[in-house]
């Protein structure tokens, strides 16, 4: 009898556990979205045209799977259980030692598998050189810097199961190529490593407020502006929810804290968030800043907003440098995190291609290449993109000739190139490059 009662109790408990998520969804409503998740929406039985939604049942199943009762709490419990065995519940997170968390996208740089070949390094540096040339022609100073990966600065907390690369990483190779091409850059790696204080969050993939202040001082110094933010005043510790911690434990409170800066003087529009695509500010400094940044700019931009009379901070992945002329910018700053360096040869900046002097009569006929009109371009110019039909020298620019003028293109991965050229698109073009030290050319039409 006692065994039968125990069996029934076990069955009822198991049934209650199985029914709780679904019944809770019906009674209490959907669970809140966690981290960067988009809240799930209950599907409509019919569409706008009044016809029956044929995907209703599958959409309803997706909705239930993303909204069931206690979803975030159960995800957190599952992640805690896996962590006991050294396994992360999210493939994007690496469980480090001493409670540290790392972004898995850094592993390519950490292990050396995210290699930067000679051509890619030249192309990235050449693109930055062209960007600098354009900005300086508009009367703006140009500055580029890389925000280091957390694992590059603090490898001591990385799990031993991940071997660290012994060869130079992508950032170091790019810095070397920038030096060869005479492009000034700001090196934050040595600056951060020289500090004993840990300036990145343990549960976040980014620097903390003091780390951002150190980077801001370096930017100000490079632009010959007053700084002193790192030695300035910081407020009392406040709760900080790390992006990596939220991914693993969405229902738990992150015990980590951050001390925000005090005394910054700038204003910004209503409803603006640190992760907004565009942030316009007015500060107490001098000059006008245009800065292209990623998520590392969320804690960095308040310091720079304070340093300039006006500033625009943009999260566009395709840098529209023509905004410098529209805004009257005196400085253009480009920041990119180490793990995203590949973007420099995947996303091209928007600006008119510079004209060059090149004797096309000396060019030998090369392999045919593709050319097409593509992408957004500023007023008065058109964008063309293409791909070389043959391998070129690692340090070869790519030129596009049209109407008796020659222009240098921005370089993309895989032999690609793109340029914003004057006038309307269409007609005949000539593409030129160097192969085995000799100038080659190929005609192309759009």
Tags for this model:
446 residues, Immunoglobulin-like, 3 domains, 30% helix
- Which bin fits the share of residues in helices? 25-40%
- What share of residues are in beta strands? 15-25%
Q: Strand order across the biggest sheet?
A: 3-10-8-9-7-6
Measured between the Cα atoms of the first and last residue, the distance is 86 Å
Which regions are unreliable across 5 or more consecutive residues at pLDDT < 50? Answer: none
Q: Determine Rg (CA atoms, Å).
A: 27 Å
Total beta strands: 20
Mean pLDDT: 89
Number of domains: 3
Q: How is the biggest beta sheet arranged?
A: 6 strands, mixed
* General shape: globular
Query: What structural category arises from helix and sheet content?
Result: alpha+beta
User: Total helix count?
Assistant: 12
Q: How would you characterize the overall build of this protein?
A:
The chain has 446 residues and is α+β, with helices and mostly antiparallel strands. It has helices spanning 2-28, 56-67, 71-83, 107-111, 118-137, 150-153, 170-180, 188-193, 209-222, 243-248, 297-307, 323-327; strands at residues 93-95, 101-103, 141-147, 238-239, 257-258, 266-268, 278-283, 288-292, 310-314, 331-337, 355-356, 364-365, 370-373, 381-387, 398-402, 405-408, 410-411, 416-422, 428-435, 438-445. It has a 6-stranded mixed sheet with strand order 3-10-8-9-7-6, with helices on both faces. The termini are far apart.
Please outline the helices and strands.
Elements: H1 2-28, H2 56-67, H3 71-83, E1 93-95, E2 101-103, H4 107-111, H5 118-137, E3 141-147, H6 150-153, H7 170-180, H8 188-193, H9 209-222, E4 238-239, H10 243-248, E5 257-258, E6 266-268, E7 278-283, E8 288-292, H11 297-307, E9 310-314, H12 323-327, E10 331-337, E11 355-356, E12 364-365, E13 370-373, E14 381-387, E15 398-402, E16 405-408, E17 410-411, E18 416-422, E19 428-435, E20 438-445
Parallel strand pairs: 3-10, 8-9, 8-10, 12-20
Antiparallel strand pairs: 1-2, 4-5, 6-7, 7-9, 11-16, 13-14, 14-18, 15-16, 15-19, 17-18, 19-20
Helix pairs in contact: 5-7, 9-11
